[in-house]
Amino acid sequence: MDGGKCDPVTTTKVAILQLDVQWGDTAANLHSAFAYMRLLESDVSTVIMPELWSCSHDNDKMAEHADSTNAIVKEMSSWCRQRGVWMLCGTLPWRAPDAHLRNRLHLISDNGSVEATYDKVHLFPRPGEDLLFKRGEDPLLFSMRGVPSSAAVSYDIRFPEYIRSIALAGAMVLYLPAEWPMERLEHWRTLLKARAIENQMFVIGCNRCGTGGGVDFGGHSMAVAPDGEVLVEAGCSEETVIAELDIKHCEFVRKQLPVFMGRAPGMYHPVTSFPPEQPEETL
Question: CA-CA distance, 56 to 62, in Å (whole number)?
Fold first, then answer.
């Protein structure tokens, strides 16, 4: 999917909106998001928001929150068109035509159109995602201003074979909205850096902060370069951080250390063909 048929940009500025999501309060969360969006400088080209930023894991009312998603996406689309920016609209609860709920990311272009959607593939069992949402079935690959890119969501980052498949498809930037808890903050930081290093891609993680449902969320949204350098990292409170990506650095790293060329896929089959009977991981 190509939403930007043009010569690739060499640098791009990404605004990472780390929000203190109010539990189940869509109006308050929308107000907070727009307050930060209005402060963005004109040279920002892309905005990313956290996972389930309209309501968090307010599971008992998730179907009701899903009824607000269309209106939220329209508001965000209008803003993107006016400002001329792309947006990875975090994730929002979505009621699909089959009546199942999905944990869905909307990719909105700088002309305000919804270019693509992505339904979270790996559903985290601890907050009951696997019981509430239907698993996504397709990865998201897209071109943003000529740059091969992709997106995944939160728990997806724990599955290296999934992220590797995205890198092998050509993605240079991975965007990752999340609701990651403070108690596993070091997992968050380590996994973002590991996925960036092993796949030689930029990884942009946008996490929520604050407290909800008895859980303290970690914040520390990050942008990691293909060589593992942390370009920018937020703290534990609500804020916006700006990451400037030098896309040519991705090409440079891949040429300097051509890891993909050294792969031996024929040796991996005996491992990948094992039946998936391992115990559940934790986020």
Answer: 9
CA distance 38 to 117: 24
First to last CA, the chain: 30
CATH number at residue 249: 3.60.110.10
Pairing mode of beta strands 101-108, 86-88: antiparallel
Q: Which residues of 205-214 are buried (b: 16+ CB within 10 A; e: fewer)?
A: bbbbbbebee
Q: Is residue 90 part of a domain?
A: yes
Q: What six digits make up the tokens of 233?
A: 């990292």
Overall number of domains in the chain: 1
Q: Whole-structure pTM over 0.85, yes or no? A: yes
User: 32 to each of 64, 93, 110, 208, how far by Cα in Å?
Assistant: 20, 18, 21, 13
Tokens of 37: 């969006």
* Domain that includes residue 233, residue range: 11-257
Per-residue pLDDT of the chain (283 residues; tens, 9 = 90+): 554 455 678 899 999 999 999 999 999 999 999 999 999 999 999 999 999 999 999 999 999 999 999 999 999 999 999 999 999 999 999 999 999 999 999 999 999 999 999 999 999 998 889 999 999 999 999 999 999 999 999 999 999 999 999 999 999 999 999 999 999 999 999 999 999 999 999 999 999 999 999 999 999 999 999 999 999 999 999 999 999 999 999 999 999 999 999 999 888 877 666 666 555 555 5
**Angle (nearest 5°) at CA 78 between 2 and 83:** 75
> Which residues in 259-278 are b (16+ Cβ under 10 Å) and which e?
eeeeeeeeeeeeeeeeeeee
Nearby residues of 236 by Cβ (< 8 Å), 6 or more positions away: 182, 209, 218, 219, 220
Sign of the C-alpha dihedral computed for residues 215, 132, 118 and 248 taken in this order:
positive
Radius of gyration of the chain (CA): 18
* 272 part of a folded domain: no
